[in-house]
Each structure stands twice: as C-alpha cells, then as structure tokens.
Amino acid sequence: MATVKRKHSRARGRTRRAGHPKLAAAATRACPKCGETMMPHRICPSCGNYRGKDFKGDDGK
Ligand SMILES: [Zn+2]
Residue 37's beta-bridge partner residues? Predict the structure, then answer.
C-alpha cells in the first residue's frame, strides 16, 4: 500500500521553524559522563559513552 510522502511542503515547515528558533535548533543534551553537549540517542562525541557503556574507538567496522 502506498504511503503519504509529504503532508506539507518543505517551505511550509521551514517557514514555521523560522519563527521558532527552538524548533530550528538541533536537539542537544549534556553527556551524563563528561558533561559535553551531545545529541540525544547518540554516542557522546567526546568520551564515547552511551547508556553507561564506552563505545570509543568502536565504529562498528
Ligand atoms: Zn561524554
């Protein structure tokens, strides 16, 4: 079954975000381990911590 590709235009979303800086900014959190600003649900770029585990140097290759 086909799915809806787009319910409103990119321009419409961008126009809305232009008036709401908080919507335009990428979400960030402070790392619980090192306090560095990081994206939520991502491995910390500074210390490699995610959910209490250290993933530093482990790029999955
Ligand atoms: Zn960290």
Answer: 30
| Chain centre to alpha carbon of residue 13 | 18
Predicted TM-score of the model (pTM): 0.49
Phi then psi for 24, rounded to 5 degrees? -80, -35
14 alpha carbon – ligand 1 mean position (Å): 31
Paired strand residues for 53? 50
* Residue 20: C-alpha distances to residues 6, 30, 50 (Å): 21, 22, 30
Q: Are 17 and 8 in contact (CB under 8 A)?
A: no
Q: What is the pLDDT of residues 2-38, one digit of tens each?
A: 999 889 999 998 898 888 887 777 788 888 888 888 8
Cα of 42 to ligand 1 centre, how many Å?
10
